[in-house]
Specification:
The chain is an alpha+beta fold and 232 residues long. It has 8 helices and 7 strands; from the N terminus they run H-E-E-E-E-H-E-H-H-H-H-E-E-H-H. It has a 7-stranded antiparallel beta sheet with strand order 4-3-2-1-5-7-6, with helices on both faces. Strand 6 and strand 7 form a beta hairpin. Helix 2 packs parallel to helix 6 and helix 3 packs across helix 7. The longest helix has 24 residues.
């Protein structure tokens, strides 16, 4: 077995889940899976339709963004993934999509408010949105700068990437991550659902109030607290 076979298989299966979950259309998204011991990750090749993917088509890239194994060109977002893996030691997979509702909030340059208990089951505050990238960053190494934009925004907001596993990049789209491909995919699907519900909430009641603190605390702690018991 190839030294990269496991992450190739995981990346292949994860990428095939993106259209199945309704998170992408055409080629608008990518998923990567890392091997932190070898300091490499497997990522979707650029421009290949999801139904034509195979494990051997996954491209192996190091944490500097350089291809180390594979015959195809890696995703155009590869350098963003590389920056995150290099700086965040405790993640194993990253998902980037242009899913409709999460992307709409990113384009509106708005964090997603915490309106309901579905949101509170996962996070205790809004889903953060970075500012639009400045011109100097855009004209430079754009994909690399996108990774730095994500990292710096979380630092500025005093948020931990291990606690908040998703973000909206202003005027762009969402990124999610997790300890493995399943968790990163779950986070991407949850983000899209929360984004849709928040939009509908504001359409139904433009003056809707955000969730009160006692409900936020109850719902988050019953799922993630020391005495967690929630599971449907």
């Amino acid at each position: 077995m190839s030294r990269y076979q496991q992450i190739r298989e995981e990346a292949y299966l994860g990428n095939r889940q993106l259209p199945a979950l309704g998170l992408v259309m055409f080629n608008f998204g990518n998923l990567s899976v890392a091997d932190p011991l070898q300091h490499v990750f497997a990522i979707k090749p650029s421009g290949i339709p999801y139904d034509e993917l195979m494990p051997e088509k996954m491209v192996i890239v190091d944490f500097e963004g350089k291809t180390v194994d594979g015959n195809l060109k890696p995703s155009s977002d590869t350098k963003t993934h590389a920056v995150l893996y290099k700086n965040w030691k405790n993640i194993g997979a990253i998902v980037h999509t242009h899913s409709t509702y999460a992307t709409a909030w990113a384009q509106a340059q708005r964090p997603i408010p915490i309106y309901g208990t579905t949101h509170a089951d996962h996070f205790t505050g809004p889903i953060s949105c970075t500012p639009p990238m400045d011109d100097e960053m855009i004209s430079g190494n754009y994909e690399y700068q996108t990774g730095l934009q994500i990292i710096n925004h979380l630092k500025e907001k005093n948020l931990s990437y291990e606690e908040i596993e998703m973000i909206l990049v202003g005027n762009h789209a969402p990124f999610t991550w997790g300890k493995n491909a399943s968790k990163a995919l779950y986070n991407s699907a949850i983000l899209e659902s929360i984004a849709q519900m928040a939009l509908l909430t504001e359409q139904i009641n433009p003056n809707a109030e955000t969730l009160k603190a006692s409900l936020i605390k109850k719902h988050f702690e019953r799922k993630h607290g020391p005495d967690a018991y929630y599971g449907q």
